[in-house]
Amino acid sequence: MLGLMQDWPLLISRVIDHAAREHGDREVISRSIEGPIHRITYREIRQRALKLAQRLSRDGIKLGDRVATLAWNSWRHLECWYGITGVGAVYHTVNPRLFEDQILYIMNHAEDRILFLDLTFVPLVEKLADRLPTVGRYVILTDAAHMPQTTLRNAVAYEEWINEADGDFRWLEFDENTAAGMCYTSGTTGHPKGVVYSHRSNILHSMMSLQPDCLNLSSRDTAMPVVPLFHANGWSFAFSGPMAGATMVMPGAKLDGPSVYELLETMQVTCTAAVPTVWLGLLAYLEQTGKPLTSLKRVVIGGSACPRAMTEKFERNYGVQVLHAWGMTEMSPLGTVCSIKKDYADLEGDALYDIKMKQGVAPFAVEMKITDDAGNELPRDGQTFGRLKVRGPAVSRSYFRGEGGQILDEDGWFDTGDVATIDPHGYMQITDRAKDVIKSGGEWISSIDLENLAVGHPDVAEAAVIGIAHPKWDERPLLVIVPKPDAQPDKEKILAFMQGRIAKWWMPDDVVFVPEIPHTATGKIQKMALRDRFKDYRFPGV
Ligand code: ADP
Prior knowledge:
By secondary structure, this protein is of the alpha/beta class. 27% of the residues lie in helices and 23% in strands. The strands form five sheets. It has an eight-stranded mixed β-sheet with strand order 2-1-11-10-12-13-14-15, with helices on both faces. The protein has a seven-stranded mixed β-sheet with strand order 7-6-5-3-4-8-9, with helices on both faces. The chain has a four-stranded antiparallel β-sheet with strand order 16-17-18-19. The longest helix is centred in the N-terminal third of the chain and has 17 residues. The model has no long low-confidence stretch (mean pLDDT 95). The site of adenosine-5'-diphosphate has 23 residues, from β14, β18 and β19.
């Protein structure tokens, strides 16, 4: 017997229809690339996205075609996502922080037909265009007045181009499992691989992300995704904001502390999200100026581990709740969020921050477990480390064009490549990337724990820990530190600071100071490059 409910495919067009109908006057406020602050409503965004969809169809874009964007967060970028998916085409977010060769690789691999790009990226794309044979048109996200002279093929100013359509158009209807978006993983080894989201997975993931223990967005919120739309599907904000009817603030290209602060305050933002590096910039600015945060309630921090000092500063000094989140491009991307369950509601002070350091609890629609190398499930005791595996309706089952082969085991679990513990209340804590964990005397040492501890020292700007070969223990930790400007930490001071806060056998065997640590395109420490730099290093006396 079948249920007798309506067949209502979960299509992305329904999200913007809903926002325009139920929250039509709510605004999307952007720092435009041209400079001024720009305001538009959901109703207008829908109308312009319809024009965009109509114009794309006229250019021959059809179901399944890939259409790329190389753009900061703005109302135009948002319109692109809705316009592209509205004709059943696939938005492909290109991360401008990738190396040029990687950009060429992913755009050719995806066979992008049109590229929407911000003014910022015109010089970069002009250099690459000869090697992008599939791109038939470049649409520059600006108006006629700001349109640059360019050699790009069939280049047009976005505003003029969409105004060639009148918006008298209906969203296409198709199966909810149709591809909607693509994002390549940054690929620390080998080529980047294409993750392909569907309409259904994006809708389910966004509904999941709106739950009170996740982003908890409502129509009373003003949400500012500082995390770019090109980073891991923009952490759902492009859909969850309009779904909830939240006011959105799109910060454009300026992601430094003072610029982020200016928008947080002038727009009275209540919820924001980004990687830790962005918040380092904001907190440094707040400390220098002594300025307050008057409206912000929640900050979602993920992409890499949120240092304890960061959580404590936000919560203790500014009264802003930190939601530590973990996820990955392959998970749409949210996997867990660290909100406090009833079981921990009575904790205070350090005991509470111990919990807040964890990456958190899986919401409905994410299943997770930890296993040993043979695939046996390990206990949820908060102590045992294992490979973290996940499954759910917004988790990848394969990469684009089958790259990387079979990625699920026979029960449908995806190995995240992370190593984690899960405690009896379901709080997951990442202890390392499987390839970064330090194997010492048959036991594992978490490089992330050591890094988090080291950055708590007032003289330390950034810390990374890598395993160095050791004749007796197999590997031992080397702590690499970037000192704060004007600070002159020494090895003894740092080790004394760490003493007593970790097991004795976890203590780094040596500390070295460097002016900078290499990062990936998404701001993660490049452990491979660091290991390479220290490949000839030997511990003193070994
Ligand atoms: P990238 O950010 O490099 O484009 P992903 O977002 O897919 O790629 O990266 C996912 C990985 O980032 C996770 O598997 C995990 O190792 C790391 N990560 C994400 N969030 C956290 C977090 N809160 N704490 C620790 N590691 C994290």
